Amino acid sequence: MCKPALTQIKPRRTDDAPSGDARCGDCPIRYRAVCAQCEGPELERLEQMKFYRSYQAGQPILWEGDRTEFVASVVTGVATLTHTLEDGRRQMVGLLLPSDFLGRPGRDRAAYDATAATDVVLCCFRRGPFDQMMRQTPQLAHRLLDMTLDDLDAAREWMLLLGRKTAREKIASFIAIIARRQAALHKQPAQGRIEMELPLTREAMADYLGLTIETVSRQITALRQDGVIEVRGKRGLVLPDYARLVEESGDDSDGGLPD
Amino acid sequence: MCKPALTQIKPRRTDDAPSGDARCGDCPIRYRAVCAQCEGPELERLEQMKFYRSYQAGQPILWEGDRTEFVASVVTGVATLTHTLEDGRRQMVGLLLPSDFLGRPGRDRAAYDATAATDVVLCCFRRGPFDQMMRQTPQLAHRLLDMTLDDLDAAREWMLLLGRKTAREKIASFIAIIARRQAALHKQPAQGRIEMELPLTREAMADYLGLTIETVSRQITALRQDGVIEVRGKRGLVLPDYARLVEESGDDSDGGLPD
DNA sequence: CGAGTGATTGATACACCTCAACACAGGTGG
DNA sequence: CCACCTGTGTTGAGGTGTATCAATCACTCG
Where do the TM regions start and end (chains A, B) (predicted)? Predict the structure, then answer.
């Protein structure tokens, strides 16, 4: 049905970033991440625990089945979660943008491959101490529950896309989701003319949408020819009219991923 | 891409079941539902709050956008969550079996349609009191977090199915999931010869798997002709060899839905 | 320059959808 | 009792959207 993954991840590794420089108070995701509702002594405790890690675009973060030593928040960049079948068919099952949470408390093995799609900085916590703190800190557990419920909603929206949308609608939906989340970063509503950057390669988009690279490429070409999008290089896009794109996506009420 | 939903839900309604008869101690899902880790006074408080509702097969439980007055655990039967696009394309996004939780704390509107696939009994809690209790009872919040994380894992497994599996693999995967969960109810591993009952119509299966009714029917016929399954009436199935079915499903390590 | 990677485009194949007819069981009413 | 209807599932013929296979292009890097 689709080609085995031939692409080899480059084996280069980034050393851990010099840890603990940044203060939580200055953190760009301070009020959106899992730590959002922690203050005072609790924030202090997290601050003590945390350490940063950086990954270059294309680097693996975790392999399915690996022991996980840490959980983490994405500070900057984009990471992906993918499932792989024995014969190499791959499906992306999660797209982690800044403030999203990576890892599952109470589970010591990764359920999916995690990969850096762009350069990524993670704010990590060792699993043991973090689990312990979660048991003692209700607002941390509540925040994580909220975020997980948002993830579940996003996953279900995504299932609708995978199961019932055409290739053209899938591409339009994907671009709309990215546009909305980039707009949300600047605290603006997505509307009118938008310039944006795709955070994924065509291959990763294909894995996200349950398509092949070729189909992704063809549909992008088609949307360009129909004036729905303009293409600027490999990753750059201009949306002359966001509403037009949403029309193409198959649903106006496009809920989509949590911001 | 697929036909608008023409099926009309029969307008018959069941009155609420005589509430509060059953004691939590006798509940068949006592140690698997959201209340599993509550004891003593907490269980007592839930017991006071709870009320039962019954729905006949085919009845709607909630419409997308409805105000939700309660959250609930499925006690017996099977319910479904579905998303619908304006043009009528439908995708099931959740399959709720006994002990699964319905509803989202902290949200007052339903995000999807919920429907009784078979006759269903729910153990309900009014939203306000339940939310309040969740804020005061860490083990309740933790249990719900755990269950939500399981749901998220299941949704992601499902995404792999929707995005990358063939029709035949989808059918085999679905049957395997149901077989495993039915086996789990009897606390047995799924293996060898299994007799089972499909809890869904062909239409609901199609909505689950992102297929059409016709394709579902054809693939079941094909699996029957290949000796992978035997068909007993509309809903009955015999699996001569569970392992053979799993082979057909595309993945041996078939994680799937939480039990 | 050549090698390598990511993306585009074209020709063809086929898996699944669409439309349509039919089978079968259960219920209802004359 | 049988004719009729309705809901559910099966089967067939044909069309189409996307995958597959393959060639080429644009860029970057050594």
Answer: none
Residue A143 pLDDT > 90: yes
B186 touches strand D (CB under 7 A): no
Interchain proximity A210–B155, CB inside 8 Å: no
Query: Does residue B205 share a domain with residue B150?
Result: no
- Shared-domain flag, residues B76 and B175: no
Nearest residue to B62 (alpha-carbon basis) of B109, B12, B113, B118: B113
Q: How far apart are CA A16 and CA A18, in angstroms?
A: 6
Contacts of A165 in chain B (CB under 8 A): 1, 89
Tokens of B207: 């909505």
In a domain, B42, yes or no: yes
pLDDT tens string A66-101: 999 999 999 999 999 999 998 999 999 999 999 999
Residue A124 β-bridge partners = A51, A72
Closest B-chain CA to A256: B111
**Confidence class for position B251, pLDDT limits 50, 70, 90:** confident
Categorize the per-residue pLDDT at B255 as very low, low, confident or very high, splitting at 50, 70 and 90: very low
Question: How confident is the model over B120-130, as a mean pLDDT?
Answer: 96
Q: Do B158 and A157 touch (CB under 8 A)?
A: no
- Of A157, A176, A198, the last residue of a domain is A157
Can you give the length of chain B in residues?
Answer: 259
In whole angstroms, give the CA distance from residue B176 to residue B246: 7
pLDDT of residue B252: 60
Q: Taking a contact as any Cβ pair under 8 Å apart, which residues of chain A between 150 and 209 contact chain B?
A: 151-153, 155-160, 162-166, 209
Return residues 6-65 of B near A (CB < 8 Å).
none
